[in-house]
Design a protein that fits this description.
46% of the residues lie in helices and 15% in strands. The protein has a seven-stranded mixed beta sheet, with helices on both faces. It has 15 helices and 13 strands.
């Protein structure tokens, strides 16, 4: 290895570890469910984004196996050449119906969806008004576009109005976009979409909602935009297929013209091999299940509210989450990591989240109850939380 590279790596790894910012990656032995096995020990899993418990769904596993037999293990090529299968077409048609849009384009990840769609629409000479707490994939997609990025105060319609007015009246930009998460994954709060859309319409902004953590969770499962009844007002809806849906992939929903354009302009779609047949079939089954019943959605919210109340009653700072996402905010990064480590020792798996994922001084453990957790599991987790919180002087 280059001496220069080795010196760089040593310096940065040491600094990260000294500041409590280095993340140890654990290996899960077996399926990712409400109980997981790490190093031979069973743990209550509160770190997964498997919101609806679908990652281990038996019907989805069955159709995935059938798809391997009928279509093989891979798509064979990028979709524009030889990789689009009838499975992909069927998935996109069902997703569009579920989302209430004309069309959908499916990609291999949510990150890829943002990296493809944002630069396809926005260019140098344009401006993007971006919520200051937007996900890293939005930030990277905006940077790739070459457009001017203007930070908007978090969930603040008045700041959006001020900056939209400045941008549109400046004459500097060809077009202006407002982009936001639907559900903010670290705090669990929800965008004030009705007020933001009022501002967007006033200034004719292109509107883009990243609903990675709202898909399957908000709007009876159809997402944050559907929750507010604004399907006709939002130009681009992005979502993942790896969280509530339980598999892998991402998509962008919108008008037929939008999707037709993205299929020839979004680089991750043009240059990445398509979703595998097994993944595509399993995702389609998940969408069908969500369209047929809200049972899993309702159970997720029931469990989320139960865990929140239990942790709040114990004395923890759980922030202002409006969704099942339940942060326990510790503050100091090393203490957050120690809290997470002690939880794991006693039987709860909940990873610490520190800078740069969240601002410095707001280190936390992010808890994600799912539809698959039982009340007994959650009670046990709350008991362990309380014990560790008292030991560390957090409560």
């Amino acid at each position: 290895m280059s001496k220069t590279l080795q010196k760089y790596l040593n310096q940065n790894l040491t600094e990260l570890k000294d500041n409590g910012l280095y993340n140890e990656i654990d290996v899960v032995e077996g399926a990712n469910g409400p109980i997981i096995n790490i190093d031979g020990k069973e743990l209550i899993n509160l770190s997964s984004n498997n919101y609806l418990g679908l990652a281990t769904d038996e019907e989805m596993k069955a159709v995935a196996k059938e798809a391997i037999d009928s279509h093989g293990v891979g798509a064979g090529a990028v979709r524009t050449i030889n990789g689009t299968m009838d499975l992909h077409r069927d998935l996109e048609e069902k997703l569009a119906k579920f989302k209430g849009t004309e069309a959908v384009i499916a990609l291999t990840s949510g990150f890829n969806a943002n990296q493809g769609a944002i630069p396809a629409i926005m260019k140098k000479g344009d401006a993007i008004l971006s919520d200051e707490l937007n996900h890293a994939s939005i930030i990277d997609g905006c940077r790739l576009s070459g457009a001017k990025i203007i930070r908007v105060n978090h969930n603040d319609p008045e700041d959006l109005r001020k900056k939209a007015k400045e941008a549109t009246e400046s004459g500097e930009y060809n077009k202006v976009m407002y982009i936001t998460d639907g559900v903010f994954s670290m705090d669990g709060d929800v965008v004030n979409l009705p007020e933001m859309i009022k501002v967007a319409k006033e200034f004719d902004l292109i509107t883009y909602v990243d609903d990675a953590h709202g898909s399957g969770v908000m709007g009876k499962g159809a997402g944050t935009v559907k929750h507010f009844g604004l399907e006709k007002e939002v130009d681009l809806q992005m979502g993942t297929l790896s969280k509530a849906i339980g598999v892998v992939g991402g998509y962008v929903a919108g008008s037929k013209d939008l999707v037709d354009y993205l299929k020839v302009a979004a680089r991750p779609f043009l240059f990445s091999t398509a979703l595998t047949p097994a993944d595509t079939a399993a995702i389609t089954k998940a969408v069908e299940k969500l369209m047929a019943s809200t049972e899993l959605h309702d159970k997720l919210w029931e469990n989320g509210n139960y865990l929140k109340q239990g942790l709040k009653d114990a004395g923890f700072d759980i922030g202002n989450s409006e969704t099942p996402i339940t942060p326990v905010i510790i503050g100091e990064e090393k203490k957050a990591q120690e809290f997470s480590r002690r939880l794991q020792e006693k039987g709860v798996y909940a990873k610490s989240i520190v800078f740069p994922t969240v601002p410095r001084g707001t280190g936390r453990v992010r808890n994600m109850p799912t539809a698959a957790h039982t009340k007994e599991m959650l009670d046990q987790a709350i008991e362990i939380y309380t014990e560790v919180g008292k030991e560390l002087g957090i409560i």
